Amino acid sequence: MLRQPQSDGPPVSSGQIAIEPPFEPLSREDACRWIRASDDELPELLARAREARDRFKSGVITYSRKVFIPLTNLCRDYCGYCTFRRDPGQPGAHTMTPDEVLRVARDGEKLGCTEALFSLGDKPELIFPHMRETLRKLGYRSTLHYLEAMCELVLRETSLLPHPNPGLMSTEWIARLSSVSPSMGLMLETTNDALLAPGAAHDNAPDKVPAKRLRTIEEAGKQNVPFTTGILIGIGESPENRVDALVAIRDLHQRYGHIQEVIIQNFRVKPEIPMAHWPEPSRSEMLRTIAVARLLMPEINLQAPPNLSDPDYEELLDAGINDWGGVSPLTPDFINPERPWPHLKELERRTHAKGFELRQRLPVYPEFVERAAAKSDLLAERLLQVADSEHYARRAA
Length: 397
Fold this sequence. Notes:
The protein has helices at 28-34, 42-56, 98-110, 129-138, 143-157, 171-178, 210-222, 239-256, 283-296, 344-353, 369-373, 377-386; strands at 60-72, 115-120, 161-165, 184-185, 227-233, 259-266, 302-303, 323-327, 357-361. The protein is α/β, with parallel strands linked by helices and 397 residues long.
């Protein structure tokens, strides 16, 4: 039985909290106070976050038009909130073939997609002989070798750019994958080690040790790889834990300058998961967390998935995000299949209603395109083909 979330301590009284102009990043102390802001204080917090966002990037909200490629849903981690993972033999367990990967990418290409988002379980061959045999038949030694080959296949045979989320990676694998993908990602999720305990969200999930995930993110920084990360809220952490995770991300970005995007993702209940009776974070919790993230990191791209906040996802703009993340006109969100993507025309309408232009970006953000292009001649060639003069996605003719 999974434990219900517990706070690490008594609520912090918000009181009078100062945010110093011109948006110097919040201290951890002030962030912890703001993340427990009262309903009366929430409008002021959101207004400050919007002002910080508008100073960073004004008037434009971005998104990436993508296809979702679930390379394999076999995984050695058993997270309490995951509906994506499977064991061999379970209904829906599947590892895609190269032909399947290429077919999805080409179908997305016809619909104007520029991103091939590769999602997969973390090193399933380490515990499943079935996966080792599958890889042997495909001609690869490991899941990461197969991922590398499929990223290169998509890069060479289509106009899409790969963005892999392969889990923990060594120094060598970050270097190898960065030569065939302009950006990559790993969600930090949390820095709270207590969630690894028996009955907690990350029980029996060896790849969710916070220190290991931080090490991967740091190594990407050392190699100057444009990197996406973020936190998952509502899985048993306290509000202060959320601040600590965001501060850890900020510290790595201040050291290496490589964090292209921070995602604030909210846990959603699904009937078939161990956490099926877990309380979801409220809308006000989500807004406070986004706003605090913006004020902790006033000059980092901040994203929240619109499909996880439907039907009123446009309210997320009020908290300071400047990006909707990947949205697919073709494939479902295989991580949250019960939450369909918004129709792109509707996303554009709601974004315009809030006073913003909606603009398509590549999986790598405009300000990181040049460093991605420096990783390999193949990447440089492909980025030149799909990026416009401002390094956004080229508009359809």
